[in-house]
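As described in the Methods, two query proteins were run sequentially through the folding procedure within a single session, without resetting any intermediate state between them. The first query and its resulting structure tokens are shown here.
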Amino acid sequence: MSGLDFYAHVATRGDVLGVGIGAQPAEWETRLGADFLDAEDGSLLRRDYGLVELSFQEEDGARPCFGVSVQVHRLRWDTESSVPAALRDAYGVFAPSTRFEDLAAAIAGLGCSIESEPDEDGTSGDTHRYRVPESGVRIFVRADENAGEQTGEVWSLSVSPAWWRAAA
């Protein structure tokens, strides 16, 4: 197993170690550990595990997760402390970067497909966005021609069904 296997799992299943959208903060802590940073803003809570960033919103006394983001680009600077121990234990080594074509092949190997999403507003010329239709997960890829070898690297993955429905 590797970091690439983790990204392919998230892209096709929309969960991290079996926990995902709708899970409470305590469930995430049980799976990923207590090494995180919380930032609260009113009813919103953002939990940052380094590689994995979570968003929660208070509803009727509970705080279900409404967004999961895998910040692959953060590994370029620090793979050791950015990857939660539970993910290192489950998946092994995480490379400092991941090529989109490698992730696309891994996703296809799991029986899913990838669609390019147009940038109708023309606001993200330095990023290409893709969608895994079977899961709804979005993949953001560096497209900045000035980025040299970083062009074509996976920037992040986003699991956020409610946000993407609202943005559509």
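Immediately afterward, the second query was submitted; its sequence and tokens are:
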Amino acid sequence: MRVEYLIRETGTNLWRNVWLTVAAVLTVFVCLALFGVSILVGKGADSLTSQWKGGIEFIIFMKPAATPDEDTAIRKVLDESGSEVKSYKYLDQAAAYEEFKKLFADKQELIDSISQNVLPPSYRVVPVDNDADAIAQLGKQFEDKPGVYEVRYASETLRNLESLTNLVRIGLLAAALILLAVAVLLILNTTFTAMMSRRREIEVMKLVGATNWFIRIPYMLEGLVHGLVGAAGAAGVLVGVNKWLFPKVQRINLFEYFRVTSGEVWSTSLMLLAIGCLVGVIGSTFAVWRYLDV
């Protein structure tokens, strides 16, 4: 089977049903764009709340130059607060630097300008009581301790924000799945319509000995084009969102640590291209195999 034949036949099918083609491509584009954005929002939300995972309610940041005795004194108070402190985790400067590099993975200049010696070690504390007043009272006793730079609390706003981003992700994902089903049906219908409009040609091809696969492949490629073009457009949206929208979001103080790396954008884009191709092939293959006896 010649490549020129496949290109010509696929192009003919696309052009004969141009409006159905446009509708199918746009549907794939919208559903995959929503799906991709929901993934990036999730990754950004994870970076935004990464310091507060596992029930951490406040963080004791030590001064970079804190002495071993000052550090031991803080650890002793935490150990002796067993009725109030459920658990705690210590991050030394090396661990803090690794976390910093992960958080700002797409900003190599910033990483190169910071050494681990300037980053504060910290204690991340999970209290027994999640009541805001109890947490404030527990954290307050560390604020004036020697060697302590700052005690930072997980605000109620941050917790609400985490819940909100989860709802947004679920909403976008649900809409994307619904539209994905619509896209498969549209591609199926477009392929079916193309085959119906050329039914006599198909019958003649069968009479002269054309194999089923010789007839099927151009129509399956038509579905592949629908999915691939729509997915490519959705990938472009992800690049644009990360380049122009997310930086504006990060200027809001509450979203300062909302980060999506360029690597995450490209990996998500590649996933969308794969899904788009799969959706196109599934829709067109189902039409070819089930709707016409070829």
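The CA atoms of residues 73 and 176 lie 53 Å apart. We note this only descriptively and draw no conclusion about the first query from it.
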